Every structure is written in C-alpha cells, then in structure tokens.
C-alpha cells in the first residue's frame, strides 16, 4: 500500500485488535484518533492510524 500511496496512508482497525495494531506500529503507523465506535456500523471502538513519508525521515 505504501508503494501506491508513497506520501501518506491512513487505516482503521478496532481497538481490541491488538495484533493488527502492533503490525501497523511496527510498520511506522501512528495513532491519529481513538473513537468510541459511534463512527462505524459495528459500534466497536476503533483506532485511526496514519503513516506519512515524513514520519520515516523524522519530519513531523
């Protein structure tokens, strides 16, 4: 996905999905927002992760 979106990328996952969250974090994604589940049809608390090419270079 980073090859298709070389500047930035954002992804959602459920907060309780610790395996996916750890995977995202290992690959340079950062938490942008946590939500109580009101924005998804499952009503499950979620997390929004983002990756930006500038994260890799240290320019936030």
Defining key terms:
3-stranded antiparallel β-sheet; 60 residues; 33% strand; 23% helix; elongated; 3 strands; 2 helices; alpha+beta; single chain
In short:
23% of the residues lie in helices and 33% in strands. By secondary structure, it is α+β, with helices and mostly antiparallel strands. The protein starts with 7 loop residues before the first strand and ends with a helix.
Structural class, from helix and strand content?
alpha+beta
The biggest sheet amounts to:
3 strands, antiparallel
> What's the number of extended β-strand segments?
3
The overall pLDDT average reads 87
What's the gyration radius in Å?
12 Å
Residue stretches low in confidence (pLDDT < 50, at least 5 long) are: none
Number of helices: 2
Order of helices and strands: EHEEH
- Total discrete domains: 1
Shape category: elongated
Strand content: 25-35%
Helical proportion? 10-25%
């Amino acid at each position: 996905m980073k090859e298709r979106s070389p500047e930035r990328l954002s992804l959602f996952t459920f907060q309780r999905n610790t395996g996916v969250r750890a995977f995202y974090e290992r690959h340079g994604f950062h938490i942008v927002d946590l939500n109580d589940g009101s924005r998804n049809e499952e009503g499950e608390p979620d997390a929004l992760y983002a990756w930006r090419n500038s994260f890799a270079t240290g320019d936030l």
